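Example 9 (inverse folding). The structure is encoded as follows.
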């Protein structure tokens, strides 16, 4: 049975992009803001549930308080994907 020929060229490795090399560590305020947004969102939702019929923290928006709390938590969570 005939043997296959070996590979003559080295495997292609793409060059490093300037964007990857330019990224450095996050600013000092990034991590505290990320944690603060998640905690604030959690407190917002817990306050809404504990207040019962008073619908705090913002009575005018009613059940949209849940959306506001989850939006805060989600924004903090999305910041974790950019943390270096």
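The amino acid assigned to each position is listed next.
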């Amino acid at each position: 049975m005939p043997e296959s020929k070996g590979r003559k060229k080295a495997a292609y490795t793409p060059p490093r992009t300037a964007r990857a090399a330019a990224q450095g560590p996050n600013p000092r305020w990034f991590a505290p803001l990320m944690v603060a947004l998640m905690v604030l969102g959690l407190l917002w939702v817990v306050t809404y549930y504990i207040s019962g019929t008073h619908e705090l923290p913002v009575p005018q928006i009613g059940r949209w308080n849940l959306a506001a709390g989850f939006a805060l938590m989600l924004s903090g969570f999305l910041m974790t994907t950019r943390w270096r």
